[in-house]
Amino acid sequence: MIHVPTALWAHYVGDLCAWLAAALAARLQHRRWPAEAERLSRITDTSYFISLAVGALAGAWLLGSANSLRMLVAAPSHSVAGALAGGIAGVELWKWRRGITVSTGGAFVLPIAVGIAVGRLGCFFTGLADATYGVPTGLPWAVDLGDGIGRHPVQLYEGVSMAVFAITYVRARLAGMNWATHHAFHAMIIFYAAQRFAWEFLKPYPPLVGPLNLFHLLMMGLVVYGLCWWNRSGRDRQPA
Fold first, then answer.
1. Cα–Cα distance, 39 to 31 (Å, whole number)
2. 79, 165, 195, 225: which could join 64 in a potential S-S bond, CB 3.0 to 4.6 Å?
3. What share of the chain has pLDDT > 70, as a percent?
């Protein structure tokens, strides 16, 4: 078992580092592949980003608290999964009201993947106070977050998964692969939701439907969303 030093302030440092890493990733993506950002600026305005921000904040706190308030020690909380789902809902509502039927997520792929990968380090070093810890395990890499119990480092599982996606995306984009050029946002949503669905079985969250907790159900919805948009975008790109 590996003892991990933890501190409550690590969460805030992790959030700050995640935002900085996401900003650097956004700059890198824009400089290397400016088409997505330029296209986004042509079809959106300030209200788009307001809808995105409001949706993300609402989703983060509403869905995070809906889960944490059902735990043994009930307390409000926020969730990156909820922020992602809420941001998508806010953007899709904005697009629906303006009759926009194309995807606008391409410019956010690398920033989101990198931001989640870095931000999970803050969750990990916050320890038990963050309520994102894993269930007990006897595996050699089990971590002790301060209570003497060996647990799955699920925060690292998710962080490494998203880092692998970010690297895979960059390599695929440089190689000109179709999925990375035309379906990267949907691929990221599907991948994020699938890996998060798996790690949820290693968290002590209260079940909602059978063995599935709230985030299991949310991730299933995100997978369906990503697949539907991928299929729709593929049809739109076919020649008449």
1. 14
2. 79
3. 95
